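tool_log.txt
---
The assistant was asked to compare two proteins side by side. It first ran the structure predictor on the initial sequence, then on the second. Raw inputs and outputs are pasted verbatim so the downstream comparison step can read them without reformatting.
(1)
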Amino acid sequence: MSWQHRRVLRDQTRSSLLAQLRSVREEEGRILQATKQFLSVLARLPAVQREDRTECDLLFADLLSQNPLYANIGLADAKGRIYASGLPIEAPVEASHRSWYQRCMRDRTFVVGSYQIGTVTRQATFNCAI
C-alpha cells in the first residue's frame, strides 16, 4: 500500500512541476516579447538614432525607474563599446566579446544572451539586444 501511495504522490508531484514549468515558460515568453518590442521602440527614438549619449543616459535612467524588471538599459556602438547607460558607467565597458553582442551584430535580429554577471550591474542577468 505504501508503495502505491508513494507512486501516486510521485506522479502528482511530477504533474504539478510540469504545470509550473509550462507557466514559467509562458511568462518568460511574454517577458521576452515585451522586451523585444521595448527595444525596437527605443532603437527608433531620435536620441538613440543621433547617438546622443547625454540624452540617452537620462532617458534610460528614467525608463529604468519605471521598469524594475530591467537591471539596466544601455547602448553600444558598432565596435561593442557601451556609450550610454541608465546606470552610471565608471569605466569603459566593452560588449564585443559577449556572445549576445556578436550574434546581434551578425544576425541583425533580437537576441537573448546567456546567464552572466553584468559588467555594469554586477547582477545575474540575461542580456537582450536588438
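(2)
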Amino acid sequence: VETVRHPLLVLDAGLRVRSANSAFHATFGVPGGQSEGTPVAAPGGLDIPGLRDRLARVADTGEQFDGFEVEHDFPGAGPKTLLLNARRVVSEDDGSPMILLAVEDVTDKKRAADSLRRLNDELEARVRERTAQLEAANNEMEAFCYSVSHDLRAPLRAIDGFGRELLQSYADRLDDRGRHYLRRVRSNSQRMAELIDDLLQLSRLSRVEIRYEPVDLTTLAATIAADLRQREPARQVTVVIEPSLTARGDAGLLRVALENLLGNAWKFTSKKPHATVEVGRVTDNGPPTFFVRDDGAGFDPQFAGKLFGAFQRLHHERDFPGTGIGLATVQRVVHRHGGTVGAEGAVGVGATFSFTLPHGDDV
C-alpha cells in the first residue's frame, strides 16, 4: 500500500480507514497517522455524494467500480477531479471483508484536455473563417478572370483587327513611318493578348483539382520535343531523354510544366547552330529530382532567385521573345504537387532547371 504512488486507502466493512499511504496524505493535506480509524468521509473530505453507497455495495456484494469520476472542492487540497476505483478483498487474519479504494488525481490532465479542446474549437473556427475567406477570394478571382477573358480581349482584338485593315487597305496612303507605327500597334496588341492568355493559365493552375496517377515523363517529354521539331524542322537540336522517367502526379499539369521547360530550352538554344537538350533524373536519399538541361544562352547565377517570378526576364525580348510567365507556371505546377524547383546556369554555357515531386516514382 505504501509503495503505490497514487493515493490508496484500505477500508473495513464499516467503511472506516484501516490504512492510508503517503500519497493519500500528500494529495489531501492530511497529516500522517490521523486518517486511520476514521470514517472514509472524514479524512481529506471524501464526503462525496454517492460514494458511500457505492462502497457499501462493494463490501456487501463484491460489486467493483472503475473510473468513478468526481469533481469536488476538498478542504485541504482545493478543487480536484478524481477517478476512483474500488475492489473487495478479504483479510487473511480473520476473513473479514475489506475494500481497496484507489484514487487517481486527474485534475491537471482534465485541465489540459479542456484547454486542448478549447484550442481545437478556436482552430476549427479559424479554419472555417479562413476557408470562407479563400472561397470569397476564389470567387473574386473567377470574376476577375471572366472580366479579363471578355472585357479586355475584345478591345485588343479590335485594335489588332483595325490595324490589320489599315495596313491592308490604306498602306498606299501611309509613308514608311506610318506603316511602321501600325505594325508596332499590332505587335503590342498581340503581345498583350498573349500575356492575358498566360496569366489566365497561371490563375487556373491554382484552382484546378489535382488527380494523382502514374505519369510517363519520358513519353511526355518525347512528344513535346517532337512538336517543337515540327514547328522548326531546320533546327539542329539533339534531344536526350532518359528512359523510364516515371512519377505520380497530375498528367495534364505535368505536361504544362514540361512544355514550358522544354520550350525554354528550345528557345534559349536558338542562337547555336547545334544544340543539346537533356531530360533526366537524379536520385539521392530524398525524392527524385527531375531536370531539363540545355547548352544555350544560360543566365547570371546571381539572378537565379528571380527566374520563377511572373514577368521576370533576364534576356531582351528582341533576342528571345516571350511573356516571362513560363517559369512561374512551372513553379506553380510543382508547388501544387508539394515539390520544389531550382535553377543553375552560367552566361553562354547553358542552364539546368530541376524540380522534385514528393510522391516520387512509386507507380
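---
observation on (2): The helical segments are 22-28, 51-61, 107-169, 176-205, 217-231, 251-268, 326-336. Residues 12 and 98 are 5 Å apart (CA to CA).
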